[in-house]
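pasting for ref
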Amino acid sequence: MFAKLENGYALCLSDYGDIKKGAQVPQVNELWSQVEQWLSTNSGNFEALPAWGDRLPDSISDRRDTAKELIDQSAGNARQRYVSVGPLVEEEYRLALQQCKAWRAAGSPEASVPAAISDWAIASGMTDEQAAANIEQTAAGWELVLLTIRQIRLSGKAAVDAATDLGTHDDMQNVAQPYIDQLNLMKSGS
């Protein structure tokens, strides 16, 4: 079973073929064909995203674990909204920054511009220097986003761990939900 996430990925709700429960599959992933196979047996319709009540187990330990998993999942979804779609795009960003730092450390020699910088300069109509500055600015913004997401994620999980067991089905839900909401509101460009 699969539900469709806001970012267009398919969320696996139960193990299917090679896809494990909880996996998020983008359309560009080789596993997407298995999502399409499942869709063909389900009249082409995704399932609804599960409500909290469908996911919360009865024991306090399990309720805490589920709440923290949902916080982690929301943090992962928030991170993905800031990166271009495609496998290994984050690694591409890291490589561009690494090449930029090495170029800067060497004194930014015009005769030895790394491919990550020159390719971006050509593609965007910038000079090599402008492209390098843009890569650095983008990396600084990405780092700030990652640190913000990390702070919300860790604070939410700590709040769940510290929460009092009220013995209700939604006690941990009520603690985790504000953090999940914060993460769900984060969008690229905001």
